[in-house]
Write a structure and sequence with these properties.
This protein is α/β, with parallel strands linked by helices and 283 residues long. Helix content is 41%, strand content 18%. It is built from twelve helices and nine strands. It has a seven-stranded mixed sheet with strand order 4-3-2-5-6-9-7, with helices on both faces. A two-stranded antiparallel sheet has the order 1-8. Helix 3 links the parallel strand 2 and strand 3. The chain binds S-adenosylmethionine.
């Protein structure tokens, strides 16, 4: 069965009396080049186990199953399970795991599903959980690459460099844990139903934490503080976030080699790390 053929999809969904859920971010792929290119970009191949979040009716699952040794697909919508049983019937290297990915014990899943394999993530994500799920995946340290389709605007934010309008606390978080790559756009017309926004595929390749960060918790506190009041100078934004007076903070910022008038959105990971070290000395 062609899982990207509109007529076949409509017949399948109506046979199973399936109704799309907006709350579950259900926009299914209907152009076959998209799951093919996402699966190619994921690095799935012999020796790899792929965790997929939200298989839907399985167009990306099938592409991954044709490349990797094992695919484990987590699906929250119970009404999709009988559909997946039908569409994935030919693939004995796929395990569908019913449930909410946010509540899963990811290390247990990896240990059970991918023994002896290198774990990857590849998914057309439900857009409403993009930030928490990517945070969870990155913090888990379990995966050698994470290739996902998300809203283009969020993809740009994740990959943005200091000084760019899209650069924010989530860019720093993702770039702390991984090398980020913006791969390609996917137009709205490639989905059923068509979403309001353009999508994009990104790849996050986890790497060792930056050596310049000595106190991770404080580093992220500084990052969140700096972006908390976005249009304020670094000095004003940090005064709202730390129990230090302006003079102390001004000294910290200057000792880190920065101007107190600079805005947080111009700082690189190294500069945030230097600033966190100075703030730690004053706390
Ligand atoms: N992979 C399919 C495709 O590309 O056509 C469907 C992608 S659709 C954007 C997102 C899928 O994630 C849906 O099947 C939805 O039911 C599922 N989903 C939503 N929230 C989820 C969660 N918390 N855990 C697991 N799956 C979820």
């Amino acid at each position: 069965m062609d899982l990207c053929n509109m007529e076949e999809i409509r017949a399948l969904l109506s046979r199973h009396n399936f109704h799309f859920s907006k709350a579950l971010g259900q926009n299914f792929l209907i152009e076959s080049w998209v799951p093919q290119e996402i699966a190619d970009a994921s690095g799935a191949g012999a020796g790899y186990g792929v965790l997929e979040i939200g298989p839907g009716i399985g167009p990306l699952t099938v592409q991954l199953a044709q490349r990797a040794d094992k695919v484990a697909s987590v699906e929250l919508d119970q009404t999709l399970l009988p559909i997946l049983a039908e569409t994935l019937a030919d693939y004995d290297n796929v395990a569908v795991i019913p449930g909410d990915v946010m509540k899963l014990d990811l290390s247990a899943v990896v240990a059970q599903q991918f023994p002896g394999l290198t774990p990857l993530v590849c998914s057309n994500l439900p857009y409403n959980i993009t930030t928490p799920v990517l945070t969870l995946l990155l913090e888990s340290g379990l995966f050698s690459a994470i290739t996902v389709m998300i809203q283009k605007e969020v993809a740009q934010r994740i990959c943005a460099q200091p000084g760019a309008g899209a650069y924010g606390a989530f860019s720093v978080l993702c770039q702390y844990y991984a090398k980020t790559e913006f791969l390609f756009d996917v137009p709205k017309e490639c989905f059923l139903p068509s979403p309001k926004v353009t999508s994009a595929v990104i790849r996050l390749t986890p790497c060792p934490p930056p050596e310049c960060v000595h106190n991770k918790e404080l580093f992220f506190r500084v990052v969140r503080g700096a972006f908390g009041l976005r249009r304020k100078t670094l000095l004003n934004a940090l005064s709202a976030a730390f129990p230090l007076n302006k003079e102390q903070l001004r000294n910290c910022i200057q000792s880190a080699g920065l101007s107190p008038e600079i805005r947080g959105e111009r700082l690189s990971i190294l500069e945030f790390a230097l600033l966190a070290d100075e703030i730690e000395k004053s706390l």
